[in-house]
Amino acid sequence: MQNLVNGKELWKTYDLGGVKVNALRGLNITVDEGEFVSIMGPSGSGKSTLMNLIGCLDTPSEGELTIDGREISSMKESELTKLRAEKIGFIFQTFNLLPALSVRDNVEFPMRNMSGDKKLNKSARRARAEECLESVGLSHRLNYLPAKLSGGERQRVAIARALVNKPKFILADEPTGNLDTESTENIMKLLHDINDGGTTVIMVTHDVETTQNTRILKIRDGVIEPNKGD
Amino acid sequence: MCIIGVMACVLLIGVINVVMYEMVSGLKGDLGTVHGKMYFEQNGTNYPPAGSVITESLGNEVLNKSVVDSQKSTNALFTPLQGSQTGDGGMTMVVGLTPGREGAYIGNTTVTGKSSLVGEADNAVIIGSETAKTYNSTVGSTITVNNESFKVVGIMKKVGSGWPLTIDSSMVMSLAHAQNISDRKGLVSTVIMVPSNGNSEQTVEDTLQSAYPKYDVYTEKDTQKTIDKQLKEVMIFMNMVIIMIFAVSMVLIMNVMMMSVKEKTKDIGTMRALGTKKGSIMLLIIYESLILSSIGGIIGILLISPVYSLLGILMGATNFNFVLPTSVIIQVAVIVLVIGTFSGLLPAYLANKISPIEALRYE
Ligand SMILES: Nc1ncnc2c1ncn2[C@@H]1O[C@H](COP(=O)(O)OP(=O)(O)OP(=O)(O)O)[C@@H](O)[C@H]1O
Ligand SMILES: [Mg+2]
Fold first, then answer.
1. What is the pTM of this model?
2. Which of B194, B218, B242 marks a domain boundary?
3. Ligand 1: residues within 6 Å at CB?
4. How does residue B15 score in pLDDT terms, banded at 50, 70 and 90?
5. ∠ CA(B220), CA(B78), CA(B221), 5° rounding?
């Protein structure tokens, strides 16, 4: 199995006006292609910080991090931006749909960030957006604005948006954190379907229920706790 | 709010531009009436040559010079009509000239009725459009001014802004009659000259200047200079006003755009996270600011004409049929585009400073 994420001795230090906060303290992580990984841990333990690194939104202060075979620590911002557009699908706790765009346009949006021969024309983009919305069961909401949707529906739109560029992996930081039980089940089923289709999923969660059939990584004080079984 | 502000600014810039345009085209019209003509006059007098006094015999001497086309040139007496202060504050100018030589003064201005005084009564006059308005006269009517009555045989089409006293506010009559009513027998103000065949204006000027060093030859060039001088000060002031209004609209839009960027921090962060390039974010912001300024601009441009007409009516102008000149529209449109682009730059720069991580933490 191909190695997708490989982080060695990752440190992330924030400088809060002179006070140094070590959010990650020499953390090691590997995720293989096709895995479904759940990251758990107390508040402030560094889960989001780690997700930001894996998501190429930030680079580590120290350590090596390769994403799909490429070392990202030394990459320029424009390269990181390109990598995000092409390889990564993001799902956020607060959905983060663009409020002025319709459901269809929201899903279509990441395709506009592609460049070169990966850039599709308008009609192909529309078709792909509708295909993804159908896969999350929202074909009947194409022209709605996000504000008119329920939380569960919004997160499904966000999932469709994350899928639209056929990413290598999906990063979901507490995707069910703002949802009721029924929507949570619904979203988890979708994420597992996506994972069954071959896309790697890395998820941060506080809810043990959602970690069924996933590999659980526990993080505490900026490092991953060794498995009790080991 | 901001759109109304931009609209008001565009409106102001537009109206100022129109005023300047009208002024320039008015002055150009005046200039046109001097075109190709030269005025022989007393030293130090200007145009119109009402302040100049020369004897008719000197005038005839000048007319007989070989460099002057005596058939097309004429002695002329310019006298402002006493007590003819019009509603606009202008004065009617009596221009007496030799019948048959009217062309020397009125050039190819279109005349309704007769364009020549030859064969007409002693008190026949051809009047400018402003004069016609002032005395409410039509072709064929008789008007009474200072107890003198005049028979209007022709009315000239409007050529300029009426400044300085020119064709539009003139009253052209025979030289003899003009001398008679103004009590200036044997005197004229000027000789309006056209160079004779084969001679340039320069030759005429040089010849006359050396023959009569105590007199002036006033030409189109001098008129241009006078007009330029008058215009320059007004233009500088107007342009300063425009620059200020320009700055106000920029600040307005910039403010709105900065607020909009701040409000959209989360969205911009989301877009960046999803792989939108910095350049695209920047373009988006500039595009939005362009749209804002264009909406204000279009409404403003549409309102220029009615507002200008309204101003005209408030200032007492009648029959206002004003068409917004294309050049003003283009000028204002360019200004709007520049405002839109430049006021988007700083907000766009701020938008680019937004880090996706910070923005995603932003609630
Ligand atoms: N941009 C930042 N600047 C300064 N400190 C930060 C920043 N981001 C995170 N931190 C700090 O780093 C530590 C880890 O934060 P992080 O957001 O990764 O925790 P988390 O595990 O995601 O917590 P939660 O479950 O509450 O989301 C915290 O102490 C936090 O205050
Ligand atoms: Mg977090």
1. 0.72
2. B218
3. A 14, 16, 21, 23, 41, 43-49; B 357
4. confident
5. 10
